[in-house]
Amino acid sequence: MESSGINAEYMGSSGINAEYMGSSGINAEYMGENSLKQGAVFRANMEAIGHEMIEVVRGKGLMNAVVVKPKDDKTAMDVCYKLAENGILAKPTHDHIIRFTPPLCITDAEVEHASQRIADTFAQF
Question: At how many degrees (to 10) do helices 28-49 and 108-122 cross?
């Protein structure tokens, strides 16, 4: 079976194997730096939302989570359904955690756009 070059072992993340990176000209060093930078911006944006459902924002690089507390019987799953309706894919874990794992090559503008959509979604609760 021929490899597509995309590592799909870790679902929810846009992992890319070394063979693909080398042949495509992707700079692995840049991806690491970008992950740290964009992850910090994303976490700051999530903390700035200030919604009563958001208890904790945590993460490292671009692997982030928002711990939510239920409101009117709405859980992380309900928030994730609403996020999907608003164009943001996220994974609920248990009843109280939302995981966000955007691609390593996400740009400043994309982080800001996604953060605004997430804030708009929480405002609906």
Answer: 30
Helix and strand element counts for the chain (H, E): 4, 4
Q: Is the pTM of this model over 0.90?
A: no
CA 41/CA 15 separation, integer angstroms: 21
Mind listing the pLDDT tens digit of every residue in the chain (125 residues)?
Answer: 343 343 333 334 444 555 555 555 567 777 889 999 999 999 999 999 999 999 999 999 999 999 999 999 999 999 999 999 999 999 999 899 999 999 998 999 999 999 999 999 999 99
101 Cβ contact partners less than 8 Å away, ≥ 6 residues apart:
12, 13, 14, 62, 63, 64, 91
Residue 67's contacts (CB-CB under 8 Å, 6 or more residues apart) are 54, 55, 56, 57, 58, 96, 97
**Closest among 76, 123, 120, 124 to 100, alpha carbons compared:** 76
